[in-house]
Amino acid sequence: MSFIFRFCLLFRTNKRLNLRACLRVVTLTLALVPALAIGGASGAFAQTPNASSLEQLTTHSWVTEKAKFLDSDEFANVLFQTTGGFPNFNGELKYNDTADDIMELLLAEQKGLKGRDGKHGHIETTLTTLGALAGFSAQMGLREAVINTGEMNEQEVFVVIDTVGGEKFYAGDALNEALFEPSSGNLSIWTLVGGAAESMGAKDLIKMKPLARHVMSRIGSKGFGIPRLPAENMPLHSPLELLDKYWNPMRNLLASSVKTPLAWPSYFRL
C-alpha cells in the first residue's frame, strides 16, 4: 500500500482529513510542480554546471545529519567525481531500500512540524512535499536520462513556455505521460496514486484533465503554485518552498542509488 493511503487509514477518525482530502492534496501538487523551470517561478533555483540538480540560493537548516550531508557541497563533489554529476548506479536495484530511506528521512525532518492545532506532525505538509518531489522528479528524470545524455534536446522533449515576466515553464507529451497518461505497458504517477485510492474504496477520483488545464492557465500569474484547498487542509509551506528545501538532498540520494532517472517518481512512495 502506498505511503499516502497508509496515512489516510489513520485519519478515518480525523475530522480534518479523509481519503478524498488526502488524494486532493497530492494531486493538486502533482499538477502544480512539474512545469517549473530549472530557473523556477520563484527564482529559488539555479542550474548547476554539467548537471540538472538544483542548487539552492538559500541555506536550509536540517534536523538530521543525513539530510545535512546529502545537501552539502562535500556530497555533491563526491557524486560529481564518481559519476560526473549524473546518475550512473551499477549495483543491484533495491527499490524498497531507497524508497524507505526517502520516507524515513522526510519523516525525521518533518516530525517537529506543528499543525495549526498545536499538535506535532502535519500530514498535509508531508503529502505536499511528496507530491512536489514526485512531480518535479518526472521532469528532472527526463532531463537526466534523455537530454543530458545527448539523446534528445530540450525542445524535442518539452514544450517550453516563456512568460511575459521572463519565466520559463515546461509541458509536453513526455511529461504528461510520466504524470497522468501512461503509454501502453507503463505506469504514471497518477496510475499509482489513483489505483491505491480505488483499492481502498474511493469511487469518485479527481478528474486530472480539468485540474491540469487550470494549472496551465495560471502559469506566469501570482496564483501559480497556490493549491486550491480548504483552509484546514492547506500545507504549512507552499509546494514551491517545500521543493526548494527538499529537492537537492533527495535528488542526490536518488542519483547515488537508482539505475534510471526515469524511475525517480516511483521512489516517493505515492
Please sum up the structure shown.
With 270 residues, the protein is mainly α. The chain is 48% helix and 5% strand. It has helices spanning 3-10, 19-32, 65-70, 73-83, 95-110, 123-147, 154-157, 173-179, 189-199, 208-218, 239-255; strands spanning 45-47, 54-56, 159-162, 168-171.
Walk me through this protein's architecture.
The protein is mainly alpha-helical and 270 residues long. It has one domain. The protein has helices spanning 3-10, 19-32, 65-70, 73-83, 95-110, 123-147, 154-157, 173-179, 189-199, 208-218, 239-255; strands at 45-47, 54-56, 159-162, 168-171. The strands form two sheets. A two-stranded antiparallel ribbon has the order 1-2. A hairpin with a 5-residue loop joins strand 3 and strand 4 (168-171). The chain is globular and about 45 Å long. Mean pLDDT is 77; it is low at 9-13 and 38-57.
- The percentage of residues in β strands lies in 5-15%
Largest sheet, in brief, is:
2 strands, antiparallel
Q: What is the subunit organization of this protein?
A: single chain
Query: How many discrete domains?
Result: 1
Please tally the β strands and state the result: 4
Portion of residues within helices: 40-55%
Distance between the termini: 9 Å
Using only CA atoms, what is the Rg?
18 Å
Structural class: mainly alpha
Low-pLDDT runs? 9-13, 38-57
Q: Output the helix-strand order.
A: HHEEHHHHHEEHHHH
Count of helical regions: 11
Global geometry: globular
